[in-house]
Amino acid sequence: MNTTGKKRIIQKLLEIVEEKIKNTCSALDHVRDARNVETKNSAGDKYETGREMAQIEMDKYEYQLGVLWKQRKTIFEVLNFKNSASATVGSLVTTNHGRYMISVGLGIIEIDGQKIMAISLDSPIGKALKGKKAGEKLAFHGKEIEILDME
Asked: What is the Cα Rg of the chain in Å?
């Protein structure tokens, strides 16, 4: 049986998202600085094109930050989650095909050599698991998945 606790998994998810926030903020600052240098050193059409490209990059990073802040908020909500008998946001579901932390879609994370799939409820596997209980089976991509345990 896998022993990595739910709180530890949630902490790892929070660390991952906070690192992504830090990196995205740094990239956004870098683009702002580059745009400001471009503003001081350029004139005419080249100036406008460079500024426009910088703005597109800034918009991209600002969008990513918005997504990451929502993920961070979800993770904090999951920290206060009370166990449920059926799979929902905040559930750690152990199946015969692996473990799924229903929270935010970050993919596979590894803790102490154990792999856990961090998924959102809106993902295909999240939708398939939603509302299921320990002992139930479901079919997913041609595989029979049995829910062994749920925290």
From this structure: 21
Indicate whether 111 belongs to any domain. yes
Task: Give the domain-ending residue among 27, 45, 79.
Answer: 79
How far apart are the two ends of the chain, measured CA to CA in Å? 13
Give the whole-angstrom CA distance, residue 18 versus residue 127. 26
CA 66, chain centre distance (Å): 12
**Spatial contact of 122 and 115, defined as CB atoms under 8 Å apart:** no
Confidence of residue 97 (pLDDT cuts 50, 70, 90): very high
Count of domains forming the chain: 2
Q: Please give the residue range of the domain that contains residue 127.
A: 92-150
Chain segment 18-35, per-residue pLDDT in tens: 999 999 999 999 988 877
Amino acid letter, 125: I
User: Does residue 11 belong to any structural domain of this protein?
Assistant: yes
Q: What are phi and psi of 17, to 5 degrees?
A: -65, -40
Q: Is residue 1 part of a domain?
A: no
Taking residue 47's Cβ as centre, other Cβ atoms within 10 Å add up to: 14
Share above pLDDT 90 across residues of the chain, in percent, rounded to a whole number: 70
> Helix, strand or coil for residue 42?
coil
Last residue of a domain, one of 51, 79, 107: 79
